[in-house]
Records
---
Amino acid sequence: MSSVPEILSTVVERALGAPALIRPCADTKFGDYQANGIMAVAKQRKENPRALAEKIIPQLDLADICEPPTVAGAGFINFKLKPAFVASQLTGEPVPQVANPKTIVIDFSSPNVAKPMHVGHIRSTILGDCLARIGRFLGHRVITDNHIGDWGTQFGMLIVGWKKHRNDAALVADPITELERLYKFVNEHGDRDEAKTELVKLQQGDAENLAIWQKIIELSQHEFAKTYQRLGVTFDHTLGESFYNPQLPGVVADLRQRGIATESEGAICIFVPGSEAPLIIQKADGAFLYGTTDLATLKYRLDHWQPDEIIYVTDARQKQHFQQVFAAGKQWLSSVPDLRHVYFGSILGEDGKPLKTREGTPVKLAQLLDEAEERAFKFVTETKPDLPEATRREIARAVGIGAVKYADLSQNRTTDYIFSWAKMLAMTGNTAPYMQYAYVRVQSIFRKAGNPAVLGHIELTHPAELDLAKHILRFAETLDAVLADDKPNWLTSYLYELAGKFSAFYDSCPVLQTPEPTRSSRLALCRRTADVMKQGLNLLGIEVIEQM
């Protein structure tokens, strides 16, 4: 089944003889959708755009779909859908699979080994996961890759700390905290020459140091996995910086041979047009940098996965870096796909500064999730004290984790936002608890009806029914917009509007007290609403619950 914009676009393009862009009408009193692009065609043909719009309207075979189209403004065509057509569209799958699926690689999360995941990782992790979920749901082949930081100068100090200062009991109890302590201790009190010696031994393949390095990675990944499990996030691949390390000399040599990289003040650089500073791929002392690894990573992904798109989900501070890497990659490699840096702003505290602890350190992600669950548990206990504790804990887990995710995903990712427990756990407004409760409210109708899976013929006779049904049909185009702009806040806004339209429908249109066949029709509309709510929240990585 095609989406409504696709159906209208096909008909308009056939009559116009050129592409037409179908968008929702800004003011629904004029219609549901509007065709744009007519003015551009009229200009090319040296015609009056309004006259051209009026000329093609009689050629539009839309009698079964909408009311007679009308011309607006300088040459727009408005379409108002017929209730019977809207009802017929609700019986099929609400979201069609894409006609031409792509292979999309999404690089996200990327924590550093031996360091705790902090609040800054939440944005990359859940944003990347959301885009992956939506891409797969629409029928694309999505490959997720967690490009962890598992190589670099810090391992010299970690190895010294491991050999001389480690606390085995602490490693068992809290590996990341102990590894972080070791690094800080050696960095502040250790012998830097000794750390350099141990690093060189690691780089040269010393068996003992390689074993320590591998153990540090295993301990770190085990701890990362706990957080990912809580967030419901998985990866197809975890190819860290070390995976590409053997390839870096060859990357630099090839770039130099092709004349793309040149020596400058002892370093090997790529001078990118429009960028003041060059992309340095090898320092004068022979060390490689992030840009070198990113170019090796790009080549590997092209060679092994043949993607149509590669999406990098990192914070906005890396914008210039990726602009340089993308430009260098296009100079170096043939058939480079669409490369996109999906950047995001910072999470701020109530003081408007980056969110930190009282000690001035970044808030650890695990602690943030713990607090979210505890705050949600307190709320559930106050509102549902009679529920068993295990049930309250499970509800609190879904609500607390969901609240953190939704609060982040509902923001425009390119901006900073202020972290507020009160707002994210509120039962009103555009929040996860509100949406989860909206789903519970719809489900309660089916429990009262004694039929949890009501689907059937739908008649749309009341304006509130029609308004809700039209909004349900926009689920597919909303997901398309999210993937086109890499902005999940389009989906959170859609779901919030869906809950509002359902509430207006439920207040105006009795369901269980209405005689047949209207009762079954409205139950079917409720069922479709619940399905879209559940699917939409799932695509955000948020669980629905049956009671709150």
---
Amino acid sequence: MTTRTKIFSIILIMLAGFYSVSVQAQCTVTAAAYPTTVCAGDPVTLTSTGACGYLMYNDFNNGTAGAGWVATTGVSFSNPCNPTADGTIYMWMGSAVPIPRTLTTIDFNVNGACEIRFDMKYSTQSQSSPCEGIDEYDEGITLQYSINGGTSWVDIAYFRPDGVILPNAIAPGSNNTSITNYTTPFTVWDNYSFPVPSAAQTNSTRFRWIQQDYSSMANDHWGLDNIEILCPSNVLVQWSHGPTVFDPPTVYPTSDTTYTVTITDTVSGLTAVDSVHIDVKPVPSSDFNVVSPICSDLFSTINYTGTGSSASSFNWLFSGGSILSGTGAGPYTVSWPVSGTMFVSLEVTDSGCVSPVTYDSVVVQTTPVAGFVADDINGCAPHTVNFTDLSNPSGTIWNWTLGDGSNSNIQNPSHTYTTPGLYDVTLAVESPEGCNDTLTYTNYIEVYEQPVANISADPLTTSIMDPEIIFSSNSMGVNDWFWNFGDPGSLGNNTSMLPPSVSHVYSADGHFLVMLVVTSANGCVDTAYINVEVIAEPSFYNIITPDGNGQNDVFEILNAERIPNELVVFNRWGKKVYEATNYQNDWDGGDLSDGTYYYIFIYGVELQNEYQGTLTIMRK
């Protein structure tokens, strides 16, 4: 059967006592029409609700489950997810209702050919809570009965989320098996009717609607309205405009018209009569357009394009959106806090004439939130920084501005700063859909001046007899100095932290690599090296044999050629026979005869050391 609309609130009074007693031997009928105000020539659907032997009617318009009925905690009685055909409230299993979600009636006497009817609607998948739809095969609703006070239950019908009604809920589909088409016959309000099974036809039978599985409380919502139990006899329904009908007729009035319906029990002869009046007035349209898709940090503009007058009232629903501007017909600017497909609907009322509801959707695409971090935000030039993109969600286009004129379009760049200074860093990130965000950190990277180390030594070469060397440096931007003189040092004292000039006395001869490490106030370091030599004490040979055989042919003083010196040789009468300054170990005795001679050797940086000895020349 199609959706039936209730117009007159008096039906609430007529049926208020039907929760717990069976009404026998009477006929009731209520005429209704949708809509009651129309444009000339527009269709009007006439409906009648009634029966002879009407047992129970519950439309939840008093805001409760019903006298003696039991609903799961958290159930609501309003119209949060688009109204029913008659615009009144209904029972809704929304985001505050845990599993299992149930509505259970009291016990009824349903002996005989009785029928249970109800309106039901599933939410559409991916709408916002509490209007989020049922999409998995095992999350549907089952209509059941119990004849033992609720100890056990038997299935009458299972409403599988893909729009199929099964005889029971056995194996409706494995968990997490989802439908692919989110719009089904169950996602709009409709009326369903089932005969009471023969096994359920007792004096004490109760019914319930149960949802036994869901993804979470925030998901898989549904509702019920206009629950009826009928135990009718043979009835005849007659409308004043035409022949007897059992399906709701459609009329096309061109002027104000009253339609009358009569229900007659052909067995008892009892009747009931009701009528409904139709006003013919202009009906506005509710057309509008939307800007879609949009990024989640922006807004959609919604423009009304219908025919409503300035006196019309506009019932906009923006599916969880926040209205930034707009009233009445609009235009509106609306933003949504989350991404996804958002729904917009509009119903327009003009002079009591209500338009059909127009629906449209806005695709809201996630805007990434730009974020990044550097592994080392300060350091000495040249300073290498590795940047890591922390944008959420990550984009597919990255534009880095690194502050020193350099740019990058890779996700996680590495960059070397060569010039000291403070640098702003900016990341602009863009999603595959073109949504973007930008983040700038001011003075994020600091690069310090690098000190320059240098060393000079005076002298570079000295002897062990004069082992002191003075080291100097004219390094710039230095805060700390560290010298390492390259030798074991005197009592291990081979380092110094004196700036910028220091002397060191070597305790042994040899070649030594001297190192200077300079550190700036910001911890930047540079190193310089220099080689110095300390020559050993000279040693002397006292015999030469200048016979040309290449062995012991000259007077050799070990290390003499490497230090400043003066050599003077005397014969045994004290006469000077040879003299040299900076002797190079190259004297072979000249033309002196064999014999013993005396010499004086003066050496050292300042010729402060003197050695006296004898030299014997033996030619044969």
---
Amino acid sequence: MILVIGGTSEGRIAADTLDEGDGTYFYSTLGPEQDVTCARGVRILGGMNAEEMAGFCSREKIRVIVDAAHPYAAGVHRNVEQTARRLGLPVVRMERPREDTGGEDVVVCGDYADAVRKIKADGVRRLLALSGVGTIGKLSGFWREREAWFRILDRDDSRRKAAEQGFPMSRIVYYPRDDMESLMERICPDAVLTKECGPTGGFGEKLRIARAHGVRVYVVRRPEMPRSFIIVHGRHGLRREIERLLPDFYALHTGFTTGSCATAAARAALMALLGMEVGPEVDFRIPEGEAMHMPVMRVVVEGGSATATVVKDAGDDPDVTDGSEISVKVAYSPRPGITFVGGEGIGTVTLPGLGLEVGGPAINPVPRRMIEAELSMLYSGGLDVTVSVKGGADLALKTFNPRVGVVGGISIVGTTGIVRPFSHEAFMESMRRQMNVAVECGCGVLVFNSGGRSEKVMRREYPELPSCSFIHYGNAVGECLEIAGRLGVPRLVMGVMIGKAVKLAEGNMDTHSHVVEMNVGFIQALARECGCGEATLSAIGGLGLARELWGLLDGDDADRFHTALLARCLGYCKRIYHGSLEIVLMNDKGEVKYRRS
């Protein structure tokens, strides 16, 4: 059981993340104003002091507290800290990323008293405060003497709080009704005051608009969190901490891509090369910007280079690289920029279509950008970056790499940085890569196969086609057809077995058993339309598995039924893919029984 202290954008992200699990949680807010969906959570209202929170956690057997309250809710953070210390509970803090507050036109203040002193000392006469209704009293030392406007939430409780603090309502403006751009033109303030509220609070946009109007910005620094809190910066970090603290909360655990591993190792290596201290873990960012951390196995510095090694954690995904050692050597280079080199276990690209140079190392574009972003934050000179994977050449034989022309090792991949177990997204990304390579190699025909068994049959049927022409679609029939259409593939041949065919003939473009089950009623109706006899219809009614149809139907009934079945499959597929399409139906013995185009 988890207690989330919410009420913020981060709280909503926490709820969405916990809803992916199998466990339950409580979502606590002061009032009912926040619109948040808690599919697996219980919403509770009303503030709790430390004593009340400790009592609640004891009664409900809370094992983890997630603090997703506003960064400036210092009292809430103290209550959480005291509760956690008293009960021995871990606290995961959903923290907003910090943004750059540098520049001569930005004045950083330690607290609101410090802000009042600095604003008055600088001679500010007209102030636009974007710090919320809760800061009116804290800034009274300014607005009781000079002109100030406060932007608050457009709610009755916010208006009541402003009135209770004696602030003139004529100088209240509202969010989101009054946008900052119009306020700057209407009020013409000498200065703007805001909190260090991060991206979700629109800090960067506030700074941009103030600068465009030549107005100085005073920023009240965010209070530091208690040192005992485990800090995460988004949904992936939260999930991984919950997976660690409560292993049974999620049925399957997430992991890191090889791209993330190489990025973390590259950063650790450069830090060591620059003489910086490398701890047991290294921080890095995944493509969507969330800061993550990864354990470092070892770091070795030798002359003008340093090598760091991490161990791939794929979570519960059946990834062949799980547990592999991924090393990155970073060396100074006389050439500008970053040059990537393939070391031990990294494949070489031999075919076009992957977005990589033929003859170069199989380090995909997204991991390259991740590594470049991390290294450029530490060093602006030229660097050679050599990525290696221990045993990568053997591991590659268990992957799709030979199909896409990557030889001698594995690829450094990953578009999100995170491995989600049995991820459909990862599967589809692999399909896109394979089809891209086939098109770039000039394959005019692609052969879709549901899996290894059907591929053997189709390779026998089309021995003249190169290996890259054969694509596994798994259950994602519709999505693979869409990709082929977008790539302009002129001709497709699709091999199907009877189990997928009866689902596809009913219009199900995702044939996974979790999505759709065999519909005996549909099969009976189709058989009746084809003129099959009552004995056959009755036998179909007792069908347990689709492959039993091969023994139930024979002679003319079999021909009529399977021909109609393929016609239905073809009709639905042609709604998505408009090129030349042939569907081949095979039985469990590997024999091609029917074709339709």
---
Amino acid sequence: MSRGGSESVADFSPQYDPKTVEDRIYKLWEEGGFFAPEAHKSSADNSNSKKSFTIVVPPPNITGSLHMGHALNATIQDILVRKKRMEGYKTLWLPGTDHAGIATQNVVEKDLKKQGISRHDLGREKFLEKIWEWKEKYGNIILDQFKKLGASMDWSRTRFTMDEKYQKAVAEAFLYYHKKGWLYKAERVINWCVRCQTSLSDLELEYKQEDGKLYFIRYPLVSQNNAENFLRNSALSPRGSALVVATTRPETMLGDSAVAVNPKDERYKNLVGKKAMLPIQNREIPIIADDHIEQEFGTGAVKVTPAHDFADADMGERHKLPFRKIIDERGKMTKEAGAICEGLKIGECRDRVVAELKKEGLIEKEEPYRHNVAICYRCGTVIEPLPSMQWFLKMQELAKMALNAAESGKVRFHPERWKDVYIDWLKNVRDWNVSRQIWWGHKIPLEGETDVLDTWFSSALWPVATLGWPEKTKDLKTFYPTSVLSTARDIINLWVMRMVFSGLELMNEVPFSDVIVHATILTKDGKRMSKSLGTGIDPMTLIEKYGADATRFGLIWQAMGGQDVHWSEEHVVAGKKFCNKIWNAARFVLSQLPATSYSTGPSPRALGQLPASPIANTDEDKKILERLEHVKKEVSGLIDTYEFGQALHDLYDFFWHEFCDIYLETAKKQLQDEKLKENTEEILSYVLYTSLKLLHPFMPFITEEIWSKLPIENKKHLIIESWLGQKV
């Protein structure tokens, strides 16, 4: 029989070049409609064809570009989607973007500032027009970058959290909760960003460590008898009759309503129920006992400022203390702060208060103190807790639903340890402040309301609203509940929990059954990547340099189930080398196949008619076929249990070492034996074809390109070929 020889590999370049392949292959997939669940069925057994497999992409902000976390998460989702598609499932991976209220408004405001314009100069309507213009220009950049990575999302279903239908869904959800009595408006202490001029929820804060001071301040006791009794039993206040409290924010003492101690603290039990004099303000305040006071902090006596601290606000409600607002929304001291500080900025007030206390001899001591300070997650400004009239969503019943979903196993976390994070937060949840004082976002659907809704209120509806809710659409019926959510650990409570209770309340079903919490990619020395510090890595640079398959390889290779990945580019380099290994192995195998495979008339053993598994004529044949069967089961099972890194390691070891290093060398000898040649050819092609299928979810471009060159009659594109069946 004639050999394929140069004819078989004529269109195989000596080395694989992703730049000549990836854009062309992606265009083929996209124009062929292979990403839509209804457009094509794989050639797998149709037993799965009526089953759906759905993933909704965590919608990136329209202000963002692809970062390493996005790239890892998208690769994980694409692996799952490609495997399920090849298994014959009706597969939908739904893309979209988030309007990112505060972030987008800040970006556009910065652009206007360069022109010497503020949003107030334009007015609300004109400013929103500017944002829409910005969105049209920049808002889809990250979606195009997903394409470069190879993400097989159904772009025909792309959604945006501010598109017309989505806005309708958000309004419907608000009115639903309002009618149910779970949405209410009240003046309560909230997190306020002075820069963004809006409230924020607890989950929208970030924290930075700050070197400050711990000030020990003397609060004179009003009753001399109690003071003398106190002093005989305490060494905390050696000079005069005073109770010493410790604070990092002396300026807030101007709004104190009490001093609190732990009821079990023997040092202060005789003072509970008595009064102290608030310095500077010269106002008598009660000394109260509260179980929440930590005896070990400072002196064990704590100043209580209900209007400007969340724990103090809770204490204030428990003990019916007055709320005195001494800091306003601009970050300046109010009239309530007294003549000494009215109108000053917070820092200026602190300096003046400390100076006045020292002047009066009421500073016991100062100590260096390093502590966490809450900052706005968008602009980095220090957050001010203060009373404000806001909309709140009652969380008691919703939290119970979300909690039960995890405890009952309806929603499973991978790795399982993240379930505890989810549960712990739900057990201590507060009512959710859902209103924001910005212009860009979903306007509260009540007459006279100018506030918009928290961005996370709308994104909590993502699995239902993207599929058509509140309308009873075909997509909603077919693809809800979705199958898997893959996300980062820092939004488990911001987003995952909220989607769970939204799905349960609005659809009576959890929105997904499995939550993959992927690793966080850190720098090589274990620090968070930062563009501003020059430690961030742009995945697009890696794709340009090494190709998308190599980049995906490097990402997944390092994702071995740990909490963090210390990034190393050497694994992307290894991915590029692996691409070349796959390419060269395919060139060799095809060079050994019969030329008739390319001819119009099939030979009796045309490669499109391979047996389910070739016959093993030698020990080497038997070993490679047994190892292939093991790897097929192992890799398939590992993907199904979300152990992607291990699956790739197993595939790599098999293909590079067992197939290329060992069997190909054995095959070269067997091909010289007329008795073994034909069967060896079949084994070579069988192992190559099966390996390409197993590798496709991880490295889709090179596998599709090689598949297109295989001498198989009536073959489909690899993206819709059967997963492990050999019927082609």
